[in-house]
Structures are given as structure tokens and as C-alpha cells.
Amino acid sequence: MTDASPLNRYQLAELGAMLAEPARAAILLALMDGTTRPAGELAHIAGVSAATASAHLKRLLEGGLLGLHEQGRHRYFRLANDDVAAWLEAMALPQAARTATVVAARDPALCRARTCYRHLAGQLGVVLCEAWLERGWLHVGSDGISLLSDGADALVQAGCQEASTQQLLRLRGRHCLDWTERRLHLGGPLGVAITGAMLDAGWLRRAQRNRALLPTPDGLRRLAELGVRLDS
């Protein structure tokens, strides 16, 4: 899954086969929040035995969809990179066209704001991207999306003290198509850094049960100062 080795029909069929197994799909979905998890936890989530999970994890690793972190005798698994997360999110789009209304009714918080791997998605992510493009804080160039100095300064001055202005100016992001909103939000390293800064500042907090991000009252107020306003 790289520019140097574009997919051929056999590789595409192999990717489809990896997703066709519900247990492997469950493992990938569990890691879409950007966490790193041990095999035992992933086996429990997928509803399979440890031996079966081990076989599934091996195939996903060999297929390039997972990354591995080893710490002593312990092994922890994560999605391989942002590209894999974006691909999985895009794969959900055809089904999402039929289920987005149901998801919104059952879990409005997930649609309002959530992580797409490690960056902000949902209504809040889309509104932020559109508002900052309109203000001229984001610039779309041939090398991706960059945050301009006015935007970086405004973010820090609004209370994101953990954000490094110089780091934000160096990072690049990219557009990511949101599966519930069917519009674009900000992904890539820049999107990850901004989301992390908002979490550190207490503007957002993670939900316990899924990928939803819950804006705090202070976070909503500060985001509104930056032109990011959610519908009530």
C-alpha cells in the first residue's frame, strides 16, 4: 500500500479477503481509535480464542495493516499507519450512506465528534476544517495542508498551551472524507497534533465505550472563539 508498489488486482483481492473475516474486521475497528492493544484484549473484542486471534494478527501483520510494538515478552498491536486508517474509513463510506441516519439516532455523540484513528472527525472535525479554510488559517498546497502562523498563534492564545507553534507550522495534514458527514475533515500528522493539543488542554475528553470525543463546555467556548461552532 505504497506509491512505490501500487495495488494490482491480486493485492486488492487479498485486502478484501482480510476484511471479509469478521474477527479480523473487529480487530481493525478496535484499533481505529489509535490505541495499542495486547493480543488477549483483541481476542476478547473479536470474540475468538487466543490461538485464533494469534493467527488473525499474524495475517494482518503480514498484510501490512498492523504494526507491532514489543516490550519484553509482551506484544502490542496497532494500525500500521494513518494511510491504513484512512483506507478503512473510506471503505465504510458506501455502507455509511445507508446507515448514517441510524448511527446518528443511536449514538449522536459519535457523529458529533470522534477520532478517525488519531485525528478529529465527525461534525466537529468537519466544521473546524471548513471554518479554518474560510479564515485562511489552513493552506492547501501540493505537499498537503499546512497551518499558517495566524492559525497557530490563535490556537495557542485560545488556551492550547501544549501546542508548539513551530511544530504545528512544520507539520502537514491532508483531507480525509468523513463517513458520517460525507464532507472533509483534517487528517494526517497536522490533524493528529491539533487533536492531541485539544485533548491535552481539556477541550475534548475521550468517551469510555467507543471512539467518541466529548467536547467540554470550556472547549466549546474556546472553539467558538476560533470560529468552530457546532449546531445545538
UniProtKB/TrEMBL annotation:
Where would one find coiled-coil regions in this protein?
A: none
Which superkingdom heads the taxonomic lineage of this protein's source? Bacteria
The HTH arsR-type domain, residue ranges: 4-99
- Alphabetical list of PROSITE patterns matching this protein: HTH_ARSR_2
Q: InterPro entries from the entry?
A: ArsR-like_HTH, HTH_ArsR_DNA-bd_dom, HTH_Metal-responsive_Reg, WH-like_DNA-bd_sf, WH_DNA-bd_sf
Entry protein name: Helix-turn-helix transcriptional regulator
Pfam (any one): HTH_20
